[in-house]
Amino acid sequence: MSDTTESLRRKISSAGELQSVVRTMKALAASSIGQYERSVLALGDYYRTVELGLGACLRASEPATSLMGPTPPARPEATSAIVFGSDQGLVGQFNEVVADYAIKSLASLSGDLQVWAVGERVHARLADAGLPVLGLFNLPNSVQAITPLVGRIQIESEAHRAASEAASLWVFHNQPLSGSLYEPVSQRLLPLDRQWGQGLIDVPWPTANLAEVVGGRGVTLRALIREYLFISLFRACAESLASENASRLAAMERADKNINDLLDELHATSHQLRQSGIDEELFDVVSGFEALVGSR
């Protein structure tokens, strides 16, 4: 069925409205990427400070890793995992990539499995794969809202880990790369074994004046460990949000290009249809004139 001038006008109007929405989402995604990337950069310096503090505490212990727990067993009793995804769509394969990576990685781990999903889209993906998803957290919409989310995640995961000291805790999320690219990564946060402690001890102190731990080393160490876990979860969330907005920005750019191509096609069709109408009217005028002249 051929298009009429009125139907083409409606299609052009609808495409223009959709393009306005797409460009608004592009602007929001671009502005959101900046705040999350800045928070990740700021966390890098803070994480370095906490890392140096942990190394100083462990070096001051006698023996060096006496405050650390034993090396975890080869087959932990239970495995807990936190998977960061997205609450909203229009992000391409963002949720599929991190969910598939988490599913494949968790399949190689032993013990009882407990999974928490951050984001409704990745929650649905993990549930469809048959993973035991215990809880769902909604993603924050700003950097300031990440801290309460991390607090809830820590409370929830610690409540389920209290029954088993040998349980391990993993976090899965997408990490931003250059441009709009990202890759899924994972990190084991718990348990804190001697190998982890030895790695911190080997980190060189930046100056010739070595640090000295004032007060109880155990209290200071536990406070720094809490900061280490908090920073790790905060950074995972911020990197995931930066990757999500980068993916959404790329998807909106593709949509904007497709809408531009559609509008060009619709305008060309509209111009062609209008020209055809004008030609028909001119032919009618010429035919009428020739008929009038012939009759005279």
Pick out its properties.
296 residues, alpha/beta, Pyruvate Kinase, Chain: A, domain 1, 2 domains, five-stranded mixed β-sheet, 6 helices
Structural notes for this entry:
The protein has 296 residues and is α/β, with parallel strands linked by helices. The protein has two domains: 5-23 and 255-295; 32-250, ATP synthase, F1 complex, gamma subunit (Pyruvate Kinase, Chain: A, domain 1), CATH 3.40.1380.10. Helices cover 61% and strands 12% of the residues. It contains six helices and five strands. It has helices spanning 5-60, 94-107, 120-128, 146-161, 194-201, 217-295; strands at residues 78-84, 112-118, 133-137, 168-176, 182-190. Strands 3-2-1-4-5 form a five-stranded mixed beta sheet, with helices on both faces. The two termini are 42 Å apart.
In short:
With 296 residues, the protein is of the alpha/beta class. The protein is built from six helices and five strands, in the order H-E-H-E-H-E-H-E-E-H-H. Strands 3-2-1-4-5 form a five-stranded mixed β-sheet, with helices on both faces.
Number of helices in the DSSP assignment: 6
At the first level of CATH, the class of the largest domain is Alpha Beta
Number of domains: 2
Helix content: 55-70%
> For this structure, what is the CATH homologous superfamily of the largest domain?
ATP synthase, F1 complex, gamma subunit
Tell me the strand order in the biggest sheet.
3-2-1-4-5
The CATH topology of the largest domain corresponds to Pyruvate Kinase, Chain: A, domain 1
**Total strand segments:** 5
